[in-house]
């Protein structure tokens, strides 16, 4: 057998050839690998060379650069108005106003501007490229608002049909089909020409808007409810006693409310109950009370009433009001309502005689006539049951114009200023003294800060809404009726305020007033105000008043003497320094 020939280096010839092939292949791999890496380096995340987006060539640029090139290339198209017609009228639409915009980054990404080692992607970069349309976005809120504006200018709102009651008549509103742009169609039309070259005007067409309540719904409501409802009165049967209520009275409680495409009968139960209550002969029960009749206290008897269940009326009325004549009767369960305070209760109060009366006088001022008179009107007739507490603020209420009061002088920080309700303290002082001599329990009272000489010294009271009140409790076993009246002042006569209390006498009250002590002197204030009120001051002092209780009649109680100590501050002299001050 022949042996393998050897080369000059001593190796077999076929082994040497194989090595050459291996090294050749390795060289080719390195060569092509280098070319591939170089191709990837050149392509990177760049867009294929021949790519255009909405007519703008962006090929060969990185993603960021391509987005900038695209934005610059589309700038004119994006900024121009879109020419449209709406119902034949030319309308130029600003894309920004309607919410249209271009998403440049998304447009570049869609065109293939992304980094990849995919050989197909590298091949396409050097040899490919396609034509794309830019990605657009829509601000829905801006778009919808803009379309609403176009509808208001060029369209017609749909009008629902309606049925309403006016007394015993039925009023109808005809339904009307409206016209408005279809938002989806409008958006598609605008997007189609947004970035076109030299687009023709877009015709935006109105579509019919059908009302939720149409003529058929109106007619059905008339036939089934509205017309029968006003055709005849409804009879309410209170266990054999019938009461008729007429359409002109109850129709205000009826309405037809659009609900899910229908006119649904609806009842205002409170309004209907008020109508029926006014037709029930006896009405609501009336509590007994005590009032002056011919100058003497007299029990005003209680009166029972006939009532009904409003829920029972509400449940049956809508059904019966739409029935034909002869079937329009609703049976209700009548109830006899008893008064909360009976005639026997009122008699047990034993309000039989005048137990105190006090009168004060006031100089002429129209605000005093108004405010003191209004306060007396509100206090007059108050009935205090045993254990109840009277509050002047609670009885008279806030001093507002709506409550019948006007501006007058009040004391604030030791000087006189104007405020609503000035003068009401005259009623507080008069009422306090009537309470004082009736022997009732003093709960809260506050004298004026400085002494006013038309009031009994040490026995007077002031009030201020929300801050200072006059309160006393009826701590006797009998009721107390409070009567208050005012004779207005005139430029030549003083006004007169009188408060009297009626009950059964429980105490004889006497009183003493001590000497003034701890005398203080007024100061002088100079006030630079346009509404300054000048005042000649006088001094302050302390004083003690004692109330003595002597039991009367069935009263076997004993009560210690009650001392009222009052400190009056000086009334300062006020000098108005503003030359334009008006002493109102």
Automatic annotation (TrEMBL):
Q: InterPro entries recorded for this chain?
A: Glycopeptide_resist_protein, Vancomycin_resist_VanW, YoaR-like_PG-bd
Q: Does the keyword Transmembrane apply?
A: yes
Q: Which UniProt keywords apply?
A: Membrane, Transmembrane, Transmembrane helix
All copies of domain YoaR-like putative peptidoglycan binding, residue ranges: 93-202
Domain of life the protein comes from: Bacteria
State if Membrane is listed as a keyword.
yes
Q: Transmembrane stretches, by residue range?
A: 20-43
Q: What is this protein called?
A: Vancomycin resistance protein YoaR, contains peptidoglycan-binding and VanW domains
Species for this entry: Nocardioides alpinus
């Amino acid at each position: 057998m022949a042996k393998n020939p050897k080369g000059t280096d001593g190796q077999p010839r076929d082994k040497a050839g194989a090595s050459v092939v291996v090294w050749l292949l390795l060289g080719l791999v390195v060569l092509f690998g280098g070319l591939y890496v170089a191709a990837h380096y050149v392509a990177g995340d760049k867009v294929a060379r021949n790519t255009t987006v909405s007519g703008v060539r962006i090929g060969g640029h990185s993603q960021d650069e391509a987005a900038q090139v695209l934005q610059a290339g589309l700038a004119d198209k994006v900024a121009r108005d879109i020419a449209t017609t709406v119902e034949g009228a030319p309308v130029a639409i600003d894309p920004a106003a309607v919410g249209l915009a271009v998403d440049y980054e998304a447009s570049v990404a869609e065109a293939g501007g992304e980094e990849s080692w995919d050989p197909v992607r590298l091949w396409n970069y050097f040899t490919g490229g396609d034509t794309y349309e830019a990605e657009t976005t829509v601000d829905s809120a801006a778009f919808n608002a803009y379309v609403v504006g176009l509808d208001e200018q060029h369209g017609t709102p749909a009008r629902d049909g309606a049925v309403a009651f006016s007394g015993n008549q039925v009023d109808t509103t005809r339904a009307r089909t409206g016209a408005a742009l279809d938002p989806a169609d409008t958006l598609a039309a605008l997007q189609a020409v947004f970035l076109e070259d030299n687009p023709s005007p877009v015709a935006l067409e109105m579509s019919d808007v059908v009302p939720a309540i149409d003529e058929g719904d109106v007619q059905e409501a008339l036939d089934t409810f509205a017309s029968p409802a006003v055709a005849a009165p409804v009879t309410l049967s209170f266990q054999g006693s019938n009461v008729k209520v007429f359409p002109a009275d109850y129709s205000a409680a009826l309405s037809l409310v659009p609900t899910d495409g229908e006119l649904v009968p609806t009842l205002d139960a409170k309004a209907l109950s008020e109508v029926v209550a006014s037709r029930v002969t006896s009405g609501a029960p009336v509590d007994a009370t005590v009032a002056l009749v011919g100058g003497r206290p007299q029990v005003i008897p209680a009166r029972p009433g006939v009532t009904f269940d409003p829920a029972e009326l509400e449940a049956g009325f809508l059904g019966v009001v739409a029935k034909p004549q002869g079937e329009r009767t609703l049976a209700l369960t009548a109830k006899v309502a008893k008064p909360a305070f009976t005639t026997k209760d009122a008699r047990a109060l034993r309000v039989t005689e005048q137990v105190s009366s006090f009168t004060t006088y006031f100089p002429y001022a129209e605000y005093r006539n108004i405010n003191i008179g209004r306060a007396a009107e509100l206090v007059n007739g108050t009935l205090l049951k045993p254990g109840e507490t009277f509050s002047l603020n609670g009885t008279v209420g806030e001093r507002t114009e709506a409550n019948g009061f006007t501006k007058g002088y009040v004391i604030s920080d030791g000087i006189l200023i104007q405020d609503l309700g000035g003068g009401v303290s005259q009623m507080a002082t008069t009422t306090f003294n009537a309470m004082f001599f009736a022997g009732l329990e003093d709960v809260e009272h506050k004298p004026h800060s400085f002494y006013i000489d038309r009031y009994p010294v040490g026995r007077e009271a002031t009030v201020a809404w929300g801050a200072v009140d006059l309160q006393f409790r009826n701590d006797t076993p009998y009721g107390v009726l409070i009567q208050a009246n005012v004779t207005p002042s005139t430029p030549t006569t003083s006004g007169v305020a009188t408060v009297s209390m009626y009950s059964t006498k429980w105490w004889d009250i006497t009183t003493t007033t001590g000497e003034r002590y701890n005398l203080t002197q007024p100061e002088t204030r100079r006030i630079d105000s346009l509404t300054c009120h000048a005042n000649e001051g006088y001094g302050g002092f302390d004083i003690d008043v004692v109330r003595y209780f002597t039991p009367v009649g069935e009263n076997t109680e004993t009560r210690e003497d009650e001392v009222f100590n009052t400190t009056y501050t000086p009334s300062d002299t006020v000098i108005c320094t503003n030359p334009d001050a008006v002493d109102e």
